[in-house]
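Table S2 (continued). Query chain:
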Amino acid sequence: MRPARRPLMGIALALVFAFLLAAPFGFKPYGIFILSMWAVMTIAAIGLNLTLGYAGQVSLAQGAFVGIGAYTAAILTTSAGWPLLATLPVAIVLCFAIGWLLGYPALRVQHHYLAFVTLALSTLVFLVFRNEEWLTKGIYGLMMNRPAWFASPLSFYYLCLGSLSVVSLATWCLIRSPLGRGVRGLCGPLPCSNSFQRSAPDLLDGRCSRPHGPVLCGHRTRPDLLRDRVSPHRVRKMPRRE
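Corresponding output:
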């Protein structure tokens, strides 16, 4: 970004943030709920943008990472009695580890074959969520009671907006870090022979999708919600890089 444009960009971001802070006051509870879901889905889209946009890798496992974070928080709060905030580190570590394990098989495939690997993970995770009723309650899902500090629709919206702000800032810092420049090199003319840099998109995808899951647990967590809303199963044609 040119130095002359930085003040204008800062002013524009401040205006957008002020608008988002004031937006729920003109809506009824259902409208606030829609705004909250927009913020939650935007967090999932940021994780997908790291893999598909910056790295140029076609990934269909976004719903799997979101589901793992959501079900981790829901299971620990409903079955083990953990407070919601205490489940966040566990969800971080679990999604990061699965992204790491997924990154190594993805090192040997490219183009649509990479999409097949991530689609296999997404399908496997969905089947586990739907069929393992002893753990996830199957198609009925897990229902948790909201903590008192975001029980109202307005407080839940500000929780989602705050999570979106934190994830956006973290992503901005990641992209400008040495690891982020290595990830962007996957989509450009610079080759990346380092295995950690090549597996980084899946790591960052899981890491940035993780906050979406626990926030989504403010409502019922069901397999169909995760599959229909955040998994790109409706892709008709995938771009192929030469």
